Amino acid sequence: MKPVVIFRFLAHEGPGYLGDFLTAQNIPWQLIKVDEGAPVPASILACSGMVLMGGAMSVNDNLPWIAPILALIRAAKDNDIPLLGHCLGGQLMSKAFGAAVTKNSVKEIGWGEVTVSKNAAAKNWFGNIETFNAFHWHGETFALPAGAIHLLASAHCKNQAWSINKHLAFQTHIEMTAEMVTKWCEAGAAELDSATASPAVQQANDMQQELPLHVFFLQKVAKQVYTQWIQGLKSA
């Protein structure tokens, strides 16, 4: 099988549990470290799937790699190569397909419940899961592009996930490991200090309470979702 290509935009926002899952399924994958200056491939045809991870930047920033990434996202969809976006990755997918990415009403950071939409697409991705405790770290939010089906919502952000056929975009994070949560809290200490007024922001100590248990249950959700997503990978 051709490899799944995973784009990383910050060193501490790597594939996390998704990488472990793909390896366990014997699915080859390669990491493109955009944060270290790795070029965006000119073609997606050598890949079975395309994944985009998170990052602190905005899709509306004037960064040299954003336009090539947007073009590659559109090429993946045109060639029936499944897409999977996490937070910034979901925003990049939304922008590539013509939807706006704007400031959310509040910054949302930490563990928070999301509700699964009641439609056939959500049932396909999440099975019998109706709610779960997801991990959030974002200040912007995406609108749904044309043809997208709404999948998840939280109290502070109505668009937490959408899908178009085999393509899946998240605003929230389902890829987390305990190590990632700890690293994000360290890297984002200044941001946490400046966002204490937000009703949707947890501080580091709160995020790390019962962390193994939170991650255990989130990875059960991620396994359900990723198992569905790999069904669409291009085998040839």
Describe the structure.
- The chain has 236 residues and is α/β, with parallel strands linked by helices.
- It has one domain (4-232): 3-Layer(aba) Sandwich (Rossmann fold), CATH 3.40.50.880.
- Helices cover 32% and strands 27% of the residues.
- It has eight helices and nine strands.
- The chain has helices spanning 17-24, 66-78, 88-96, 120-126, 178-187, 189-194, 204-207, 211-229; strands spanning 4-8, 29-33, 49-52, 83-86, 101-116, 131-142, 149-154, 157-164, 167-170.
- The chain has a nine-stranded mixed beta sheet, sandwiched between helices.
- A hairpin with a 2-residue loop joins strand 8 and strand 9.
- Helix 2 crosses helix 3 (88-96).
- The longest helix is centred in the last third of the chain and has 19 residues, at 211-229.
- The protein starts with a strand and ends in a 7-residue tail after the last helix.
- The model has no long low-confidence stretch (mean pLDDT 97).
Q: What is the domain tally?
A: 1
* CATH architecture classification name: 3-Layer(aba) Sandwich
Number of strands: 9
- Helical segment count: 8
Helix share, percent: 25-40%
CATH domain topology: Rossmann fold
Q: What is the H/E string?
A: EHEEHEHEHEEEEHHHH
Strands of the largest sheet, in order across it?
Answer: 2-1-3-4-9-8-7-5-6
Q: What low-confidence regions span 5 or more consecutive residues with pLDDT below 50?
A: none
Terminal residue distance: 7 Å
- Largest sheet properties: 9 strands, mixed
- Name the beta content range: 25-35%
The radius of gyration over CA amounts to 16 Å
